[in-house]
Amino acid sequence: MMRRLFLLILAVAAVGAESTLHAQDTVQHSENRFFVETSGGAPAVCGFNFNIIYRDRTYLNGRLAGVVGSLSWAENNGNLGASLKILGTDLPDVTRRETAVKPVAVFRGFLSIDGKPLHPSFACGAADSFCGVYSVPTSAEIYSAIPSREITVSFAREANGLDITLPLDVVGGVRTSPKNFKDFNDCIGVLTAKPGK
Questions:
Q1: Which of 166, 163, 155 is nearest to 128 (CA)?
Q2: Which of 27, 35, 26, 28 shows the shortest CA–CA distance to 173?
Q3: Domain ranges of the chain
Q4: CA distances from residue 80 to 20, 43, 47, 168, 174 in whole angstroms, order as listed
Q5: Which is deepest, 23, 62, 82, 188, by most CB within 10 Å?
Q6: For the segment 43-95, what is each residue's pLDDT rounded down to a tens digit?
Q7: What are the Cα distances from residue 32, in Å, to 124, 137, 155, 191?
Q8: What are the Cα distances from residue 72, in Å, to 35, 91, 170?
Q9: Residue 73 to residues 34, 128, 136, 139: CA-CA distances in angstroms?
């Protein structure tokens, strides 16, 4: 009888451990928007913003969390670099009568294209968010993946923690505003045509 109880406990523990290992963070809502920033009337920064609400099964046992960020290209001394900025948030837990959104530190971040991780060349972040810069040729590889390939953003909420990986719905951003996508592409064209490139 004790042996059966012990085996039952082991079986339940194994199923529980397996479901935890395979639990994924799931997107609940995602918005993306392409943009162009100008300086003196000329395009200076081309990029897109992302805003994702997801169920965090990595750190929050399935509670809602958010990530806001951007991926922006700019020319500097003849080089076209891309900066990735990520800010995390915990959304209020209504079961605990919470009402405030809480900022969450992001310790590292990177993009992947079709599952291939692309780590930034160097970090440029602040204390509560992540910022990383991609240099050529990686910045060009990321641009060429838009909008036809799968792009994901990964980040960690703890210094030595697990990465959360979420899809960037770039195609949705193109569908939502084809004009903004065209302006973004035109902006990249202007930046790559600058003297010194």
A1: 155
A2: 35
A3: 24-192
A4: 41, 13, 12, 21, 22
A5: 82
A6: 999 999 999 999 999 999 889 999 999 999 999 888 899 999 999 999 988 78
A7: 23, 24, 18, 22
A8: 9, 26, 13
A9: 12, 22, 11, 8
